[in-house]
Design goal:
Strands 3, 8, 10, 11, 12, 13, 14, 18 and 20 form a 9-stranded mixed beta sheet that branches. The chain has 1 helix and 22 strands. Helix content is about 5%, strand content about 40%. A hairpin with a 5-residue loop joins β16 (about 230-240) and β17 (about 245-250). It has a single domain, classed as Peptidase G1 (Jelly Rolls). It is globular and about 45 Å long.
Amino acid sequence: MASFRIVCLRLVLFAGAALLPLVSLPQWAVAATNPPQPSAGPRRPASVPDNYVITPFGYFHPSCVQALAKGEQLLADGRIQYADGTSSSHAAVCGYVRFSRSGQIISSPGEQGQRTAQSPEVNGWVENAEVLTNSPTVAYGAILAAWTVPPPPERNDEQVLYFFPGLEDSNDVQSILQPVLGWFYGQWTINSWNCCLNGVATNSGLVNVSPGDHIYGSVTSTCPAGTVTCATWNVLTVDLDTGQSTTLANTPSNGQSFNWAFGGVLEAYYIDSCKDYPRDHSLRFDYVNLFDENLKVIPHPDWSGYLDTQDTPQCHYGVRSTGHTVTVDY
């Protein structure tokens, strides 16, 4: 098992094949499952209907969240291509509003909520490290990271936690691509996300993981070097200890140029106590490799930190970063 982890890390982090990180997994790798997203529950903001679910993008009506099965792909028009090559007859379109973590409406049916590079808190993120190209015509070609599943929180207050790196377009957020580690219902899980074509949040299906497991996540362009606006991307999340992976392959970008990168993000819901966070008080994203549009590693990304200083409790939040590591404290 250890040798498999080493081989995978070499392949996806250091070799030229890192930009196509759909690594070959052993025969014992288990396919992703599709349990439901966590319910908004009785502790949701008053504005959020009781049948909504929690995602890394806020509160959604469950009909606006779709999980793809193994071998399925999301097409550019929003339809699903099945593993046998056939496609759904029509694209899913969300007919319900979406809410932020605080309960604010951030999109109308079928539309993406407005965000700016100066206000990532609209998504309810607690803290993150980010960097911009500062130009709509200069984009990133990939982001890769590895991290370890932390121990469970000391308390169970029905909290929901998400940790992830990712890519966005700061000028026109249509697709948010990210490999995600989540905690809810007393279990750590991983899956890959693309939000929100036609207002729908699409994921690759949940895989259960355990504390101490080594996670690799990547968002990579499928286009040749020099492409500013690539039509499709691969989003991969894999547990290097078990070989289980959950992937969005050739997922559409909806015409965006990804000029906004996140080396590490913490998003949290229903935090009553600092003990609602994992016991080790920080999560470090290692081997954070950000690539430019020419598919060259950026040696020293100028990460800047964002902290939510308004919500309570304040749990010693902090963001620490070097060129290739990002640590979020809690």
